[in-house]
Specification:
Blueprint lengths: L3 H8 L3 E5 L21 E4 L4 E2 L3 H14 L3 E3 L18 H5 L5 E9 L5 E9 L4 E10 L4 H17 L8 E9 L4 E9 L6 E2 L6 E7 L5 E8 L2 E8 L5 E3 L7 E6 L5 E8 L2 E8 L5 E3 L7 E6 L5 E6 L6 E6 L6 E2 L6 E7 L6 E7 L2 E7 L7 E2 L5 E7 L5 E7 L6 E6 L5 E3 L6 E6 L5
Parallel strand pairs: 2-4, 2-5, 3-5
Antiparallel strand pairs: 1-7, 5-6, 6-7, 8-9, 8-31, 9-10, 11-12, 12-13, 13-14, 15-16, 16-17, 17-18, 19-20, 20-21, 21-22, 23-24, 24-25, 25-26, 27-28, 28-29, 29-30
């Protein structure tokens, strides 16, 4: 088994960002992310110069931007010569000739104390202006995080929205057979790098979820003796059981401030939504309907909770106040609605929908309006949001050997396998790392 402690220690190393002078932004380059037929922006990203890791760093930036679907990195084989001084203004006519609208240049150097310093510039080729100039300093083992931060900065400058590349994903890694499954918690960078197991596979795990600061994970463990909810500190590896319950407990999720966990518990055949204060372990019951109420998710302001319930005859989505009052049904389409999760910006709720022998990932507004189905397959389920509320990660099973991770953007146009080739389910996306 790969070592969790070594990988996570590297991820937790200090990363410091320093801003250099930024030139006035040009209005020439604008990516309208809300336009469904947006064409990817042609961007030239020559290999960064300097330290040996520089070329790999710019490759990661290129891969991040390309995978977003909003950028089209150009073929480096056609690039004109570029000077070694990142501060020099490029020959813009030469870059126009290769159809570049944006140009990203960079240089990576090692400081005397052993730290890496990555200096980069983003240029508007047709306006002939610098859009952005920044410098990141990091420990050498964190060079990939520097690359993700550069990609985030470029993404934000050219789209006006927060990036999502300097993040991690936790999920259930699946192996074994259907008769004897092995389910382990695994964590990785959002681009599939630095994968590491968090549990050893001696028990089954389900529905891992990050806290707001991305330092803790809550999940459900299933053993022959029953189910238990756990908190796991990623940095220290410390694990804590969230009390003992007589029946099944499942679907835990943190409150936005990380001080509470909302979950479902089955007692005497009745499944309801509960919330636990993590400091006192005091538990409050939020629903009392005799139906099955499960999959709760807080709104970003912590004022409401969305959940699914079959109290109307089939699983549908409901929203209630965080104290359990004022319950309202929000889904009224045909089919079965499950696994709702509020977007980080509060504007949408993603969900799984089963209808006509197909499964879909969909979104709707918190009042139930503007329902849109983004995907369709044999089995799509378990959506989780990128921190910028633009991309959804989910698991897809096409009826073959098992489920895999996929992504789709909120337009439904950009659908692709996630950069993890093995069987996986129950993903959760972290906030931007600090």
């Amino acid at each position: 088994m790969r070592s969790c402690k070594v990988v996570l220690a590297a991820l937790a190393a200090a990363l410091v960002a320093n801003l250099t002078a930024v030139a006035p932004a040009s209005a020439e380059i604008v990516i309208n992310v809300d336009q469904g037929d947006t064409q990817p922006l042609p961007i030239a990203i020559p290999s960064f110069g300097g330290a040996p890791v520089a070329g790999q760093l710019s490759d990661v930036v290129t891969a991040d931007l390309k995978r977003s679907g909003l950028f089209r990195p150009l073929d480096a084989g056609a690039f004109p010569p570029l000077g070694s001084d990142v501060n020099l203004q490029p020959q813009f006519d030469a870059w126009k000739a290769v159809s570049a609208q944006a140009l990203l240049t960079g240089h990576v150097a090692a400081d005397g104390d052993g730290h890496l310093r990555a200096d980069f510039r983003l240029w508007d080729v047709y306006a002939g202006e610098q859009l952005l100039g920044m410098e990141f300093t990091s420990t050498p083992q964190n060079w990939r995080r520097v690359a993700h931060k550069i990609a985030d900065a470029v993404y934000e400058k050219l789209t006006g929205e927060q990036g999502y590349f300097d993040t991690r994903v936790v999920f259930v890694a699946e192996s074994g057979t259907r008769a004897k499954p092995v389910r382990r918690l695994e964590i990785m960078d959002q681009d599939g790098a630095n994968p590491s197991y968090l549990t050893d596979g001696s028990y089954l795990v389900f529905t891992p979820r990050f806290s707001a600061n991305s330092q803790e994970i809550t999940y459900m463990a299933l053993r022959p003796t029953g189910s238990t909810l756990y908190l796991l500190n990623i940095d220290t590896g410390r694990q804590e059981a969230l009390g003992h319950f007589p029946g099944m407990v499942f679907a835990p999720r943190f409150s936005p401030d990380g001080r509470k966990v909302v979950f479902s518990a089955e007692k005497a055949g009745d499944t309801d939504v509960y919330v636990m204060d993590l400091a006192s372990h005091a538990v409050a019951r939020l629903t009392t309907d005799p139906a099955i109420d499960t999959s709760p998710s807080f709104s970003p302001d912590a004022g409401r909770v969305v959940f699914n319930s079959d109290r109307g005859g089939s699983p549908q989505l409901y929203v209630m106040n965080a104290d359990g009052s004022n319950v309202n049904r929000i889904s009224f389409g045909s089919g079965r609605y499950t696994t709702p999760v509020w977007s980080p910006d509060g504007k949408l709720i993603a969900f799984t929908k089963q209808e006509g022998g197909q499964f879909h990932i969909g979104v709707m507004r918190p009042d139930g309006s503007n329902e849109r189905l983004l995907t369709s397959s044999y089995l799509d389920e378990g959506p989780t949001w990128a921190p910028n509320s633009r991309v959804i990660l989910f698991s897809r099973d096409t009826g073959g050997p098992g489920a895999h991770l996929w992504t789709v953007d909120v337009s439904g146009r950009l659908l692709a396998p996630a950069p993890y080739a093995l069987r996986a389910s129950d993903p959760a996306w972290s906030s931007l790392l600090r």
